[in-house]
Design the sequence.
């Protein structure tokens, strides 16, 4: 690869991870939104694209991209770059997806690093930073859900947005919840609480390193973190794995590999592969491939 092409590819990788809006795909179609219970690749693809779209700042552009595929942004709220949007298919306002935006501002890392578990009034204990972020947007969300009641509602989000979707799912009635590249959000009691309320699908792309944090320490039990939901593992050009955790990234190995690549590997000047796997574009790309191939509905 020529030097200028290599630099372009590296720059593109950095943008995909830290400026996700830079590579949002403009789609001409989306599969039909499925109402049946259980995991759906179609719904995973739809909500993954929505989660990626939430990084687009321009509300006009965002709504045009949605209208191109037959969806409407009925309501949205943003404060300090924490945002949710309430979406529905054109003509079907009672079928809703509420999507939360992920980490999009350096200040959000202050939420991410505040890992002290805080009592959650709806059950268990939750990452203190996520509670703080959710508290800033929950009142308008509650109002929107009350004003626009839905026969079916899904929550979704990427990264920090996935954690906020879990908090929403523990507080409001939902018919499903999809997270993408989501860190652990709470302790085992919280995981049990939110899983008892709705079906959760925790989608992981390849070796996404963000899904390994905060670190889980098994012997601490309720004082440690635990993922919530059934695992859906996407691996490039491989079969999608549901409830199969054999190839998932694990905290210790992922960070050991990252350190090795930093000091001994060949990734100087670009994000480490496990960090690149966190980019929402990877989730969208792989789910689209499965949908177009006619995989699980």
Sequence:
């Amino acid at each position: 690869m020529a030097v200028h092409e290599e630099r372009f590819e590296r720059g593109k990788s950095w943008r995909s991870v830290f400026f996700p809006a830079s590579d949002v795909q403009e789609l001409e179609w989306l599969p039909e939104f499925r109402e049946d219970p259980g995991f759906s690749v179609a719904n995973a693809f739809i909500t993954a694209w929505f989660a990626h779209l939430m990084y687009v700042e321009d509300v006009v552009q965002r709504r045009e991209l949605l209208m191109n595929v037959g969806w409407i942004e009925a309501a949205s709220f943003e404060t300090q770059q924490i945002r949710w949007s309430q979406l529905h298919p054109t003509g079907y306002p009672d079928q809703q997806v509420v999507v939360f935006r992920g980490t999009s501002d350096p200040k959000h890392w202050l939420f991410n690093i505040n890992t002290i578990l805080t009592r959650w009034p709806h059950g268990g204990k939750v990452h203190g930073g996520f509670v703080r972020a959710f508290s800033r947007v929950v009142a308008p969300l509650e109002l929107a859900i009350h004003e626009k009641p839905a026969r079916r509602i899904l929550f979704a989000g990427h990264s920090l947005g996935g954690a906020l979707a879990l908090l929403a799912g523990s507080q409001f009635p939902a018919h499903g919840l999809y997270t993408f590249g989501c860190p652990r959000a709470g302790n085992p009691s919280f995981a049990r609480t939110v899983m008892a309320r709705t079906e959760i699908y925790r989608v992981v792309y390849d070796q996404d390193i963000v899904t390994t944090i905060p670190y889980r320490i098994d012997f601490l039990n309720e004082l440690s973190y635990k993922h919530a939901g059934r695992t859906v593992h996407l691996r490039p050009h491989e079969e999608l794995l549901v409830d199969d955790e054999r190839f998932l990234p694990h905290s210790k190995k992922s960070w050991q590999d990252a350190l090795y690549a930093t000091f001994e590997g060949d990734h100087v000047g670009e994000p480490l592969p496990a960090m690149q796997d966190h980019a929402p574009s990877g989730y969208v790309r792989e789910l689209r491939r499965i949908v177009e191939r006619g995989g699980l509905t």
In short: The domain at 3-52+101-135+150-293 is CATH 3.40.50 (Rossmann fold). The chain has one domain: 3-52+101-135+150-293.
